[in-house]
Amino acid sequence: MRGASLAISGSITFNDSTDDNNVLSAYVMQQDVLIPTLTVAETLSYAADLRLGASTSKLERETIVKEVILELGLKDCANTRIGDNEHKGCSGGEKRRVSIGVQLLANPSVLYLDEPTTGVFL
């Protein structure tokens, strides 16, 4: 409950700018939601087609997908199916990195991660 003498003030900035119209954020859920029959590369390509749309050429989307695969250390499992409880596939850590990669495709300014180490054995 606010008192009559309480004053609220302040500002919100991002990189020292009050203009937040160009701030793109992304959210990685705690639970990986991936299609188990697709490979890592197919998953990221499919997501790039949906997230980047027609304004990005096919060659640009392919380049972005390759960069994300390399950046997240997914090169060795790029052709491995995601898998599920019934079909062996990627490890928990690889799945987690694929989920992060799906969001990184759009090059967000801020990436929110809900329990990023869930399912990853340290």
Please explain how this structure is put together:
The chain has 122 residues and is mainly α. It has one domain (25-113): Rossmann fold. The protein has 3 helices and 2 strands, in the order βαααβ. It has helices at residues 40-52, 58-71, 92-104; strands spanning 25-28, 110-113. It has a two-stranded parallel sheet. Helix 1 packs across helix 2 and helix 1 packs parallel to helix 3. The model has no long low-confidence stretch (mean pLDDT 89).
Q: How would you classify the helix and strand content by structural class?
A: mainly alpha
Give the CATH topology. Rossmann fold
Distance between the termini: 44 Å
For the sheet with most strands, the description reads:
2 strands, parallel
Q: How many domain units?
A: 1
> Unreliable stretches, pLDDT < 50, 5 or more residues?
none
| Count of individual beta strands | 2
**CATH class division:** Alpha Beta
**What is the strand content?**
5-15%
Helix count, per DSSP?
Answer: 3
What does the overall shape look like?
Answer: globular
Binned, the helix content reads: 25-40%
The assembly state of the depicted protein chains is single chain
CATH architecture name? 3-Layer(aba) Sandwich
The helix/strand series, from N terminus to C terminus, equals EHHHE
Task: Offer a few descriptive terms.
Rossmann fold, two-stranded parallel sheet, 3 helices
